[in-house]
Amino acid sequence: MKTSKLWILGVLNIVFLAVSLIFVDKLIEKGNDYNQYMHEHVKVLKFQDRLLNPEEWKLLVVGKVISSIEDTVWQKKLLASEHAYVLAKESYQEVERNGQYLLYLFFVLLLLTIIVYAGGNKLILALGGSLLTASIVYLIIGIYTPMLEIHAYSENLEIPLVIKFDKMSETADEYVDAGTEYLEELSNYMGYEIEIPKQNIAEWLDGYEYDHTIVFEGKMYYYYQSKSIKSIIELLFKDKNYAVAWAILSFSVFIPILKMILSFLLIYFPYFRTKKGFLMVLSVLGKWSMADVFVAATFLAFLSFHNMNVGIETSSTALLGMNFFMGYVVLSLLASTFIWLDTKKETKLKGYEMIG
């Protein structure tokens, strides 16, 4: 089907956006549900409510002596944490399912674009427009959906409570010896000779100890973080880190939106391809093509932590928001490349000035 009418592309892209936003809304909702349930799961198992909980300590200590005593505090927490974790996993499965639907829609859009414009002189430009439209959807998800989660926890944490009687008896022997010497000196002073045999209790109790080690079953969380670009920006503004907040907001929201608007104008309105001021702005924005990568790097640096104590396990997981944000970066670069390939003669822009 040969055609050069770009209004058809506009209709295809509008329909794609309208349908995609339905799944985007559901995906963001379920992503926030996942974030909420995971925080509930971790909150129940935080060390403040376990290691510093006197009720759980009491049951664990007594349970070492009386085997029939069960740690009911831990059992309630285990049930609550497992329930929240199941709900979190169900929510994330919904996130992945909606993400797959969006991927299928994207392939349908590309296929329809190729079918409509195959054999025509606007195929490359149309592909650029479709890629640019899809990048809008990916950017929205990348901004509003959690990108990365980091855990720091201990599993089956052991608190050693070992009573070493031989060490205690060494101190006792010192006091006994001191008392014996005092009695002997006192008896000599009174004209009596009393010889008290010395007893070495430490030798009797050599190696004898009582192990009362306490084990906190399951996981105990010290740190958990799961945030989206949106929540990171809000947190930075709240903490008055304005420079970083404005940098992330500009590079992840303002500049991408401005680049998209200018690119759409370049696609649908040939008039702008000869306007120097317009092309100059687009050229300047093209030089910020690595800013999106900077946002991801800043996000990871914000959530990273160093010098973790030995014995504490750490793990990090890239969530779907990270994949969609990286998808936006790739699609926007490809879209800019296709647009430049089609309009380079008219705009006289170089590839590095256009791509971004």
Describe the structure.
The chain is mainly alpha-helical and 356 residues long. The chain has one domain. The protein has 12 helices and 5 strands. It has helices at 6-44, 54-65, 72-117, 123-144, 165-189, 201-204, 229-238, 242-268, 276-286, 291-303, 320-347, 351-354; strands spanning 148-159, 162-164, 209-211, 214-227, 313-318. A 3-stranded antiparallel beta sheet has the order 4-1-5. A two-stranded antiparallel sheet has the order 2-3. Helix 1 (6-44) runs parallel beside helix 4, helix 4 runs antiparallel to helix 8 (242-268) and helix 8 packs across helix 11 (320-347). The longest helix has 46 residues, at 72-117. It is elongated. The model has no long low-confidence stretch (mean pLDDT 77).
